[in-house]
Structure prediction request, 325 residues.
Amino acid sequence: MAQPILITGGAGYIGSHTARHLTANGAKCVIADNLVYGHREAVPIGAVFELVDLADRAALKALFGKYNFAAVVHFAAFAYVGESVTDPQKYYANNLIGTLNLLEAMLGAGVKKIVFSSTCATYGEPQYTPIDEAHPQHPINPYGVTKLAIERVFADYEKAYGLRHISLRYFNAAGAAADSAIGESHTPETHLIPLVLKAIKGETPPIKIFGTDYDTPDGTCVRDYIHVEDLAVAHQLALEKLGSFCGCLNLATGVGTSVREVIAAAEAVTGKRCPVEIAPRRAGDPAKLYAAADKAREILGWQPRYTEIKETIRTAWNWEQNRKF
Ligand code: UFG
Prediction:
């Protein structure tokens, strides 16, 4: 029987879409999640669920004793940028120590392959766009620092212990499964697209546009929105490439979309007006973040299928109208 893959944080947003994709393609997945932010309902049928916190070294050791894992896909992390500034201890402890504990259990069991959920937040304020993987990394918040530190830990563990690792630096993950079975569900929600859709539904107050005086074509921030199902596919490809490649890859569309363009696209998809309010800039928001993802194309043979923001928002809207959790 095929060896299982461990997916930490597999009940979270990107983790659950990846678990579903891997399971649908025949992988045996074991999901380890503490359910602090994840959703039990997001675990795909066919995957095994284990309630495990990465702070618990004994539980991790037992997990690796119970299953003969081929590799790990590591999503489990706290990911609220603002909160990481006000409560960095929470982020360093959970993201960094949790990962060290995971690596300890992996190496103890002789598991030496990991695909990791990294982020464009490791780059900090961009010095140029599109951002490629060689762009200097100077994260401007503790969340980004934890992710960068983990990338560096992998490089050291590769030299010392032969760890095989691929860190995938996502830009702005967006959208939901094409069949709306799973989607984005954060509490609290801070991300633009779900908040725009909730404002359109009348569930929340008008969407606040954080700053209209940026040096961008329409004055609002530009981001690179990459569909969560495209991210899922990239993880599968990365697992297959761990034998021949170690390192970091951007996952993005290469297309920048402004906050106003997101709102206009959401209005076009839903056929409804989005109530908006102009608000001051949000601290720590760079004007423009979009990527060159040529390296992922070259190394993984990966190509995002969702290149139109409207199509990405359509999947988020279908989910938002009939969400299950
Ligand atoms: N925005 C608004 N109003 C809102 C929410 C967001 O105008 O109510 C704007 C933001 O200012 C930003 C853009 O919409 O310009 C996107 O904001 P998100 O909060 O959706 O996402 P971020 O760009 O802040 O994403 C960042 C990093 C990711 C990281 C993620 C963690 O780019 O790498 O936060 O949640 F993973």
